[in-house]
Specification:
Length: 200
């Protein structure tokens, strides 16, 4: 059986294509973020995975959850979607509820976290935005972070968003991961390379 990421891919692409065409990418990302959090809850996960519960009942339960989370604020994502389920919201909200209904009818609501993740990747790619994960042996200064960001942006030809972590086990230096590419300029990495060469 295909993994969740593979199953989620066509749904994420369809959602992103619609959101982009209707200039609602951020709104759909917000909706997906909220829905992912809800379906990741174990109690709700058991409910949506129950084949005895009808698709429309699952969607109706979502409306009730939105109302419980935000009963007063009509400007929140929750209230917007609640209204959409009742048939009175804007087009992008109605479209998202139709999307939820389609997932429910195909027994695919559990894919929402994976769809959300893939949607985020499509959004970043569309914006020519790259996420770089930097791990340093010591905390980096703001100037050092800006220098790394600038060099990566120049090399990749895209906007770079840095995610910086500290790992003293590196001893010194940094590692940088962009997608499936890793640049290891740490002392630990160099020692590992030396060991490999000596034992080859």
């Amino acid at each position: 059986m295909a993994d969740l990421s593979t199953l989620a891919r066509p749904y994420a692409k369809a959602a992103f294509d619609y959101a982009k065409e209707h200039h609602a990418i951020n709104e759909w990302q917000d909706y997906l973020n909220v829905m992912s959090a809800i379906v990741s809850d174990k109690a709700f996960a058991d409910y949506i995975n129950n084949p005895a519960v009808a698709a429309q009942a699952k969607v109706a339960t979502l409306k009730d959850l939105y109302n419980q989370i935000s009963p007063e604020d009509s400007n929140t994502v929750f209230k917007t979607l609640s209204t959409a389920i009742e048939g009175g919201a804007q087009a992008d909200s109605n479209a998202f509820v139709n999307f939820l209904t389609q997932l429910a009818e195909q027994d695919r609501l559990a894919l929402l976290p994976s769809i959300n993740e893939r949607f985020g990747l499509l959004k970043a790619a569309d914006a020519k935005e790259v996420h770089a994960y930097v791990t340093s042996a010591y905390p980096l200064t703001q100037v050092q972070e800006q220098l790394i960001e600038h060099r990566l942006a120049t090399s990749l030809g895209a906007k770079v968003v840095l995610h910086v972590n500290v790992d003293p086990a590196l001893i010194a230096g940094v590692t940088i991961k962009v997608g499936d590419k890793v640049i290891d300029d740490s002392v630990r990495g160099k020692l590992k390379q030396l060991k490999t060469q000596l034992t080859a």
